[in-house]
Specification:
The chain is built from 5 helices and 15 strands. Strand 2 (about 20-25) and strand 3 form a beta hairpin. The protein is globular and about 60 Å long. The strands form 5 sheets. The chain has a 5-stranded antiparallel beta sheet, with no helix packed on it. Strands 6-1-8-12 form a 4-stranded antiparallel beta sheet, with no helix packed on it. It has about 250 residues and is an alpha+beta fold. It has one domain (about 1-240). It has helices at about 50-60, 60-65, 125-140, 150-155, 230-240, and strands at about 1-10, 20-25, 25-35, 40, 70, 75-80, 90-95, 110-120, 160, 165-170, 170, 185-190, 190-200, 210, 225-230.
Length: about 250
């Protein structure tokens, strides 16, 4: 099975290029230097011309799509064989570019991550993605003691295909706390790395997915199912990934 791994981030250039290296386990997937800004671009919601599946899905999730107005103008996307997706995905960034002098700093280079995603190419077909999401909804509804509220369900279960959270003290921490391990939508300057575990989703045979940082500390793993990201089909459309692969599982 083939997987698609993607990185979406803003980048502010200053002084010297930033070096980026991407690994699956310890295997180098790509290395490149960034010599100019990566800014946001405006995006439009799906229309009927994009196909009935995507258009109707966007109407169902209007509460999500009305807030997705921009994306980074450049994406870094890789097709990987399942055989090299084992324990982790890691991105290492060397970016020590500032005007720091005598204890003062007014200019610096930084990254701001919008998404890191991993999924089988099979789910780049919108029909397959939607069907998988609907299946997960039904599974969650049938769980004992399942919360009915959208927010409670989303906070408790795993997110797919773009898990972006951190586990501390056996549970997910708030994305707005000032924790050094948080990376989603934070401006990060200097050199740093993000390492996300690869986990085998126990309720979908053969599915590998990104887990949260410190996943091994998470309690009640056996009770947590998947909550699919409604915004991802729009991302796939804007990145021109939809139906680029047509594999069967």
């Amino acid at each position: 099975m083939k997987y698609v791994l993607g990185f979406l981030f803003e980048y502010k250039y200053y002084k010297n290029p930033a070096n980026v290296r991407i690994f699956a386990n310890n295997q180098l997937i790509d290395e490149f230097e960034l010599t100019e800004d990566i800014n946001l671009k405006n995006i439009k919601p799906p229309t009927a011309d994009d196909g009935a599946d995507l258009y109707n899905f966007s109407k169902k999730w209007t509460t999500v799509y009305q807030f997705v107005k921009q994306l980074p103008e450049k994406a870094f996307v890789y097709t990987l064989d399942e055989s090299i997706i084992k324990n982790s995905i890691r991105i290492e960034i060397t970016n020590n570019n500032t005007n720091y002098t005598n204890g003062f700093m007014t200019k610096w280079s930084f990254f701001k991550f919008h998404s890191i995603f991993l999924l089988p190419t099979y789910y780049l077909d919108v029909k397959n993605f939607i069907a998988f999401g609907e299946k997960q909804i039904q599974i969650r509804k049938n769980l004992p003691d399942q919360h009915d509220e959208y927010d409670d369900s989303m906070q408790y279960h795993l997110r797919w295909p773009d898990e972006d959270r951190v586990v501390k003290n056996n549970c997910f921490i708030d994305s707005y706390t000032n924790d050094k391990d948080l990376w989603y939508q934070w401006e990060k300057g200097g050199s740093f790395s993000i390492k996300l575990p690869i986990i085998d989703y126990i309720y979908e045979e053969g599915l590998k997915m990104l887990g949260p940082i410190n996943y091994e500390q998470l309690e009640e793993k056996e009770k947590r199912r998947i909550f699919t990201s409604a915004k991802m089909p729009l991302y796939f459309k804007c990145l021109k990934l939809i139906n680029t692969k047509n594999e069967t599982t």
